[in-house]
Amino acid sequence: MRKKTFETILYSMGGVAAMAVILIAVNVLAGVLKERVDLTKERAFTLSAGTRAILSKLDTPIKIRFYCTQGEPSTESLFLRTYSKHVEDLLAEYRQASHGKITIEKYDPQPDSDAEDSARLDGVEGQMMRNGEKFYLGLAVVQLDQKEAIPFLDPGRERQLEYDLSRAITRVGTPEKPVIGIMSPLPVFGMPSNPMMMRMGQQGQQPWIIVNEL
After folding, report:
1. CA dist., res. 67 & res. 109, Å (int)
2. Which CATH architecture has domain 49-173?
3. DSSP secondary structure code for residue 132 in this structure
């Protein structure tokens, strides 16, 4: 009986040791390969092919200054702090995919601090909470003398977060915007109302949405 109990304990210890070896091996391989697995349902931390194409063409280093208020969270700012972790994880994906072309600097803009002054100079604005707390959650993308700011990372635009980040990176990398001409027999630029139509209460036609977006 004692021999059987001893064998059971021995096998259990062997299983635990084997599991520990497997976990250590997985961590070592993950560190060597520098690969991260996105297990979220909506693939929130998997960069799109378009973003990876943008990052692969970077030939000049880019610095992203990420401003996020730290400290003890209040009830009102807890949601923003949770969202800031998502932003930080996505920025880490950008840094890894850029192969060293993107560096991330994180700042805590406390009141009357150098970090708060830097946030203001970068165009990042603090949001006033109902309890009087000012919460910063924004970033600035900098390349040489070009700068593009996202004053506030609105959680309501979470689904467009990657798009906003990639657009900011593209803008600092290509300050010369292409010129686009539109030729169309259709009234894409809208039609002003003439005096006769105005007297009849009719308004002119507004420009098409595509023209406004361009």
Report:
1. 7
2. 3-Layer(aba) Sandwich (3.40)
3. S
